[in-house]
Specification:
By secondary structure, the protein is an all-alpha fold. 72% of the residues lie in helices and 0% in strands. The longest helix is centred in the middle third of the chain and has 25 residues, at 52-76. It starts with 9 loop residues before the first helix and ends with a helix.
Length: 178
C-alpha cells in the first residue's frame, strides 16, 4: 500500500492499481474497488483521473515506463554483452508481479495489448543487439530466446532459480551457435 499522506497522489492510485491488477486482475481496476483498497472515497480517484479509461491509460504508461526502466537498469549492471544477455534473460524469467496480469488483460484490451507489444519490442531489440554484439545476427534467435523467457514465466510450478538456470542454459545454447 502506498505511503499515506493527507492526500493521495496520482502515483499512489497507479501504484495501488499495479498491486491490484497483480493480485486480482484487471477487474480490480475500477474506481470503487481501488478506493476501498486505499480506504478513501471515489472522489479522490476522480480528482486525479477524469474516468476509468484515462486511469487505465496512465496505469499502462506507468507499467511500460517502469518495465523499460528495469530493462535499462539490467543492461547497465554488466559491461560485457554475454553477461548482459545472461542477466537480462534470467531477470526476465521473474517479471514484475503485474506483468502476467497485464499480459492476460492484453488478450481482450487493445491499449494493454499495445503496451505489451511495445515492451516486447524493446526487449526483443535489446536481446537482438546483445546477440549481434556476440556475432549472432539472426533476429529469429532473439525471438526464440524471448519466447523461451516468456514461456518460463508461465511455468508456475518451477522455482525461480530453476527458471533462471534453464534460461541460462538456453542462452549458452544460443551462444554456442556463433
Amino acid at each position: 500500500m502506498p505511503k499515506r499522506s493527507s492526500r493521495l497522489s496520482a502515483s499512489d492510485w497507479l501504484s495501488a492499481g499495479l498491486d491490484a491488477v497483480a493480485e486480482a486482475g484487471p477487474g480490480a481496476l475500477k474506481a470503487e474497488p481501488l478506493a476501498v483498497r486505499l480506504n478513501v472515497s471515489k472522489g479522490s480517484f476522480y480528482w486525479h483521473f477524469s474516468d476509468v479509461p484515462e486511469y487505465h491509460a496512465k496505469l499502462l504508461e506507468t507499467w511500460e515506463a517502469e518495465t523499460n526502466a528495469r530493462l535499462a537498469a539490467l543492461i547497465a549492471e554488466d559491461a560485457q554483452p554475454v553477461a548482459q544477455l545472461r542477466s537480462l534473460a534470467q531477470a526476465l524469467t521473474a517479471p514484475q508481479a503485474s506483468e502476467p496480469a497485464i499480459r492476460s488483460w492484453a488478450l481482450n484490451h487493445v491499449p494493454a495489448r499495445d503496451a505489451v507489444e511495445r515492451v516486447d519490442q524493446a526487449r526483443l531489440e535489446t536481446l537482438h543487439a546483445l546477440l549481434r554484439a556476440e556475432g549472432i545476427r539472426n533476429m529469429e534467435m532473439a525471438r526464440i530466446l524471448y519466447a523461451a523467457i516468456i514461456g518460463m514465466t508461465q511455468l508456475g510450478q518451477a522455482a525461480p532459480e530453476d527458471r533462471q538456470a534453464a534460461i541460462g542454459s538456453m542462452v549458452d545454447l544460443v551462444l554456442a551457435l556463433r
